[in-house]
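Thread: sanity check for a docking pose with zinc ion

Original post by kr_44:
Hi all, I'm comparing my docking run against an independent structure prediction. Below are the sequence and the ligand SMILES. Could someone generate the full complex and paste the structure tokens? I mainly care about where the ligand ends up relative to the chain.
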Amino acid sequence: MRIHTLDLNFLNSKQVLSSYLVESDPPFLVETGPDSTFENLKAELRKFGYEIKDIKYVFITHIHLDHSGAAFRFANEGAKIYVHPNGKRHLVNPEKLIRSATMVYKERTYELWGDTLPIDEEKVIETSDGQIITIGDIQVRVLDSPGHAKHHNVYLIDDHLFTGDTGGVRIGNGPIMPAVPPPDIDIPIWLKTIEKMKSYNATYICPSHFGCFSDVEYHLETLRKNLIKYDEFIKKQIKFSDDYNTLFPIFKEYVDSFFTDKKVRDFYQFANPDEMNLAGLIRYAKVNKFDVE
Ligand SMILES: [Zn+2]
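Reply from moderator J.T.:
Ran it for you. Here is the predicted complex with zinc ion included:
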């Protein structure tokens, strides 16, 4: 078995968004990326000699469109799509997904994500926590992993932990940053998920943004610390204001402080936009009533 990182070249940028090819018999994928990068994914698969129809199994970490948007194209060619039980209905009927993407991205929605079409119910397979799914001679262990989203799975395949967004965002030599979009983020629950991910002692950690890293313990510990910093940041700021526009420049400056290289910072903005993260943190603070003394 070999694991290949496929660069989807999202927004014409390298190392922002990946899919992973597990080259085994049969080959399968973790993440599809959005439909807008489907042609890039096709080209990446061809480098290894595969066509879309060769991929019969796809594991989606969660249903956010940058991770799952092109799943329907594989299902149309006969693939089974594995997903968290809370995500299944949104793949079968993506109306709500499209509606919330349109609310956030407005006229840029199509350019960013392409089509998001429904998948036949029988092609979407609900997973359960701790389940082991055998594909050929490879075992895929499913870890329910709430924190970033309520519909998130992490997959342990051999010694690789595929963490979607629950393992944070890490690009090149950049920092290990939380991805905290609305509506589900829950930092205390996420911290528990980090302990769970640590407990498997994987050799590699592979966030979808971007690529595999071999310092798993350091990665997860840094993410844990940075999540706690985000938690402290919003708890402090929300007492002063819960207004997005007031908080935005403060948040932006705060995020800047994690970076030494301005160019690297720009790549993170594609993968993990400040706008989404601040909206997610404000919502998290309000739901938990941190704004009330
Ligand atoms: Zn996500």
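Residues 62, 64, 148-149, 165, 179 surround zinc ion (CB under 6 Å). Hope that helps with the comparison, let us know if your pose agrees.
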